[in-house]
């Protein structure tokens, strides 16, 4: 529509608002009420109403005057939020509060002139600007952002919205996630900001893989969440505060009243699960981990490298003695000594090096047997290898049982262990079959191709390669070899991507060459020395079958195939020319194009790791360290397959509980933790409705008990409590925002005898900030 021309009175009215002439604006409004000589909601040539001009000039007095005269607000609230005029936002929110639940004025926007899309709400726009004060005003009025539906949701609402306007549907989802990722909104609306940042960052990363069109935007939001979690951790000022954060469990986990799990670094495990590399590699976090890792070795890093080497060598030599002591007396001083993470790591490493030494002895055939025996008995070295293999298998079974199958297969080293153990099991089984089935000696040249002994020897050789390469995983503990090991892993991914394209090229040329040459296949008797194939001294029949063609083209990459294989005995020069041209074209594509592309990809991966070498290495090292912090898996192979008195005791107690529960009615044999929780709920001072408590259920226990201390909303502070506020200052580039967290130190009597130190952490109401 054409632009409406302003009258003289309207121009004077808008000019007075622009200049901040309070008296002039008031006079114009009174005349408009009496004479109706102008439209108080008129727009200037830039499409701004008088209210928007007042907001832009941050003139709150004129804004209040305009609102008192009932001027049309339109999208003024959104405009004030975008301009980040806190006073104007507060004035608009308090100007007219509709009845009912809604505490924010409705947005009577004109779609023709509005600068905002219909899906943008005040809280979303405030989160986009990440203005802490404005978000706080809206959160205090119980304004929330609804969670978007899953990306693959096929409900009626999502399907219809996508069909009507797919772009608006995708942009609406992006706007919601952009608001949810606001650090200020997370800090003000979440009981556990760190956990919320973890989950949202992971969700955004997964969403970027599906919404390829907005991949960059979602990845930036995911990175923003990671930075926010890391910035929160930066504010820890002591080891105690750091331990409280890293040991904090979410609501679902904190329901378990297991005192042994109060210091298990639950938050750090979640950070590893959600790939929060910046959080894990944060210096405060690494300092605490190093302290726990070198527990029992004060000043280890300051010692000379020769002293460190000798100490590790002595501990490694004594690992059998330590293992036996732990089996017999796990609660003794030496038994607790081997449970320390660093000692456990050295013992496991020494055990694996011993296993590799035995494999080396087995490959040297020191105790030589009859080489022509079809079912040879195991040698002494092979008998010594067997307990290690069984120990490795038992360790993998325990790891899969404790962590779950899904968690187990996500680690590539576990897949390598599974392959290695499977090869050893297959080798043992085939050797048993050969020993039982064949008792006679026979020249090896006369054995059949699929003889069990031959297959066992081949599988054992492959397993040895896997066992030796498995040692690379220990490089992660070293600051010099760790980044190289990580780069090697990334390069393997590049090789897999390259092989997909290369296999397509290989199959295409193999099919063409085989189609051209299979007519010219010759018999072995027609070739020199009765030898047929590319392994002969004079190569022949390189493209006679599809399998042989695939082999020939593969080995041609390494220059092991001669050009004369394209010749045929008949005088068919055209066929030879076409075959040679196809063979040459394949070499150009595979060697010049694809191979150089692989080199470029691998160089890019290495540079990517090198640019973030410190973060990548610390994250990988933390995963290695955490595997030794967990309870269980103390004994290295082969001692882990020996039933310990502790294991026998646990088994007897489990059988006792199972047998005793059979005669009990349902409910009497409930878990001890459930009974303890019921006792807590029956106490008068502990309400059963946990929603009445304003603080999240985090506890820090420094004893054998793990009590919870609660305080009702509005109740007097316990005189035995001392509360200190820790203010976290997180900066995200759009401004600094103060985030308040409270640490409560509460002295609580446990069982009427002992005083335990407990703490609770929670997000304070916005008013405390």
TrEMBL record:
**What is the protein named?**
Transient receptor potential cation channel, subfamily C, member 5a
Q: Name one GO biological process term.
A: regulation of cytosolic calcium ion concentration
Listed GO cellular component terms?
cation channel complex; plasma membrane
Pinpoint the Transient receptor ion channel domain residues.
153-215
SUPFAM superfamilies according to UniProt: Ankyrin repeat (SSF48403)
Q: Which organism is it from?
A: Nothobranchius furzeri (Turquoise killifish)
Q: Indicate the segments annotated as coiled coil, or none if absent.
A: 204-231
List the catalytic activities from the record: Ca(2+)(in) = Ca(2+)(out)
The membrane topology noted for this protein in its Swiss-Prot or TrEMBL record is: Multi-pass membrane protein
Q: Which GO terms describe its molecular function?
A: inositol 1,4,5 trisphosphate binding; store-operated calcium channel activity
State which residue ranges cross the membrane.
305-329, 341-360, 380-397, 418-438, 458-477, 498-520, 549-565, 577-599
Which keywords appear in this protein's UniProt record, sorted alphabetically?
Answer: ANK repeat, Calcium, Calcium channel, Calcium transport, Cell membrane, Coiled coil, Disulfide bond, Ion channel, Ion transport, Membrane, Repeat, Transmembrane, Transmembrane helix, Transport
Record flagged with keyword Cell membrane: yes
């Amino acid at each position: 529509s054409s632009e409406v021309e302003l009258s003289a009175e309207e121009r004077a009215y808008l000019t007075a608002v622009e200049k901040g002439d309070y008296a002039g604006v008031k006079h114009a409004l009174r005349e408009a009420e009496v004479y109706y000589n102008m439209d108080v909601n008129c727009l200037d040539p830039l499409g701004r109403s008088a209210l928007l001009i007042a907001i832009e000039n941050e003139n709150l007095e004129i804004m209040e005057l305009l609102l008192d005269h009932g001027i049309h607000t339109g999208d003024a609230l959104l405009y004030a939020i975008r301009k980040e005029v806190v006073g104007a936002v507060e004035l608009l929110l308090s100007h007219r509060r509709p009845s009912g639940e809604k505490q924010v004025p409705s947005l009577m926007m004109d779609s023709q002139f509005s600068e905002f899309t219909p899906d943008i709400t005040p809280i979303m726009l405030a989160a986009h600007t990440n203005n802490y004060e404005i978000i706080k005003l809206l959160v205090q009025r119980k304004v929330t952002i609804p969670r978007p539906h899953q990306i693959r949701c096929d409900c009626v609402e999502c399907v219809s919205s996508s069909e009507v306007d797919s772009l608006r549907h995708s942009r609406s989802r992006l706007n919601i996630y952009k608001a949810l990722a606001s650090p200020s909104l997370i800090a003000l609306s979440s009981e556990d900001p760190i956990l919320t940042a973890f989950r949202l960052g992971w969700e955004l990363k997964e969403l970027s893989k599906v919404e390829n069109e907005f991949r960059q935007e979602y990845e930036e939001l995911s990175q923003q969440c990671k930075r926010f979690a890391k910035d929160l951790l930066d504010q820890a000022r002591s080891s105690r505060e750091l331990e409280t954060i890293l040991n904090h469990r979410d609501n679902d986990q904190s329901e378990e009243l297991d005192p042994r799990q109060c210091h298990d670094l639950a938050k750090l495990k979640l950070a590893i699960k959600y790939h929060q590399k910046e959080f894990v590699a944060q210096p405060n976090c690494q300092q605490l981990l190093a302290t726990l890792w070198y527990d029992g070795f004060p000043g280890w890093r300051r010692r000379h490298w020769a002293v460190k080497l000798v100490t590790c060598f002595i501990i490694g030599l004594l690992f059998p003695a330590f293992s036996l002591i732990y089996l017999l007396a796990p609660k003794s001083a030496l038994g607790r000594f081997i449970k320390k993470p660093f000692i456990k790591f050295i013992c496991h490493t020494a055990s694996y090096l011993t296993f590799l030494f035995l494999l080396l002895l087995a490959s040297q055939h020191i105790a030589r047997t009859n080489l022509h025996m079809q079912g040879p008995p195991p040698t002494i070295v092979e008998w010594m290898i067997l307990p290690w293999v069984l120990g490795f298998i038992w360790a993998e079974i325990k790891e899969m049982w404790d962590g779950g199958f899904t968690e187990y297969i996500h680690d590539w080293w576990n897949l390598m262990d599974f392959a290695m153990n499977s090869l050893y099991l297959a080798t043992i089984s085939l050797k048993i079959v050969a020993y039982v089935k064949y008792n006679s000696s026979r020249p090896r040249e006369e054995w059949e191709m699929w003889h069990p002994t031959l297959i066992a020897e081949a599988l054992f050789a492959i397993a040895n390669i896997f066992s030796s390469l498995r040692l690379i995983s220990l490089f992660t503990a070293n600051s010099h070899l760790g980044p190289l090991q990580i780069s090697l892993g990334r390069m393997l991914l590049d090789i897999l991507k390259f092989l997909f394209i290369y296999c397509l090229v290989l199959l295409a040329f193999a099919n063409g060459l085989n189609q051209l040459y299979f007519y010219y296949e010759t018999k072995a008797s027609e070739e020199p020395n009765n030898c047929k194939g590319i392994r002969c001294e004079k190569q022949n029949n390189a493209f006679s079958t599809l399998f042989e063609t695939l082999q020939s083209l593969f080995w041609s990459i390494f220059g092991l195939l001669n050009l004369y294989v394209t010749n045929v005995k008949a005088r068919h020069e055209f066929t030879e020319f076409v075959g040679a041209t196809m063979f040459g074209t394949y070499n150009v594509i595979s060697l010049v194009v694809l191979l150089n592309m692989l080199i470029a990809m691998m160089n890019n991966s290495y540079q990517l790791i090198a640019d973030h070498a410190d973060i990548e290495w610390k994250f990988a090292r933390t995963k290695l360290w955490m595997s030794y912090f967990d309870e269980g898996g103390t004994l290295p192979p082969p001692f882990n397959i020996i039933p310990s008195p502790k294991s026998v005791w646990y088994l007897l107690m489990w059988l006792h509980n199972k047998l005793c529960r059979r005669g009990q009615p349902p409910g009497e044999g409930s878990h001890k933790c459930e009974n303890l929780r019921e006792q807590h709920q029956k106490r008068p001072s502990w309400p059963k409705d946990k929603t009445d408590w304003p603080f999240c259920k985090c506890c820090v226990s420094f004893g054998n008990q793990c009590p919870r201390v609660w305080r009702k909303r509005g109740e007097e502070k316990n005189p035995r409590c001392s509360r200190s506020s820790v203010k976290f200052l997180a900066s995200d580039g759009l401004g600094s925002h103060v985030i308040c967290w409270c640490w409560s130190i509460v002295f609580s009597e446990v069982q009427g005898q002992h005083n335990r130190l407990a703490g609770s952490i929670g997000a304070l109401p916005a008013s405390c900030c």
